[in-house]
Known about the structure:
- With 330 residues, the protein is of the alpha+beta class.
- Helices cover 31% and strands 28% of the residues.
Amino acid sequence: MTDLSNEPLKVVLFCDSDVIPENLPTENVTYELLTHTMDDEGSAIFNFSSMKPALQLAEEKDYDIVLGISTKFSRIGLAGRKSDDKKLELYNVHQLAAIVLEQLVKEKDAFTCFKSPVFSDIIDKIVLKNGQKIKDYIPGKEAEAGLEEEDNYLIIDEFHTFKYSGDADVFYHASLLVDIAREQQKETLTVADHLVELYRQYGYFREKSYKVNLDFNNQKTYFDRIFKELRKSPPEKIGFDTIVNITDYHKQISTNLLSGKKYAINTATANILKLKLSGGTTVTLLQNSEEVQYYISVTGNLLEKTQLEEINKQSDDLILRIVESLNKLY
């Protein structure tokens, strides 16, 4: 990798503001502002499609990171260079939340992290290991989350939302990412290398999500039956792993299938089932009137960066087997 330790960090700021905010780091950092017009909550999500103009600009001008920001919805997106080449990769919301939270717990006093149920367990590990509290909440139902009971809180969800109750606006969270990228570059490293260190410290996680549109009545009938049977008589296994726990956000009950014990949960209700498997995999299923979504998170041990490509491949194979097993339920 080219030695960039003395070079300024070059950032494409993909933002709904037409000025670069003053509270972003400026020492040894250069910015190029590219304005976006994603002003609808449903479309203001930082994925490959929405960030394509900024990614193209970064590739053309050899920028180091692309930082997507929505001030209107307090959302963040991040793309950065891999450690071994110049190709930009887009970080998923689990990775992004892990990177931000690991810095936030060092800089902020006690707070409660309210997270969507779809997040992988690395979020819980980072928050709890650093002495903070964590609770599930249902996106779109903040009024029922009990936020008023907390002095300070952070809200994160699968739509890349980062809302802090105190003086930390979305640019504060963005500045944490710039700081990390800048410090990594001083060592001729990248955000990707920093993420590997998080995996070594808190455990490796790999996440995938799948969506099925309920365009036809037979599809809705099929998934209605799956949710009903999972609640009534869940299978012993999914793939090769035993289901050890099911959390039902509709019935507000978490059940340990090994002991039979049931525990009450306290969130807003939603048609969400979260299955914990014996190998550490988590499968979260969400259904609304328009679609069903699968969120799958697998875990493992990562000792060296050289293992990452192989463990990613193994994890993707495992996730594929789980999806195939889910599609054959009942």
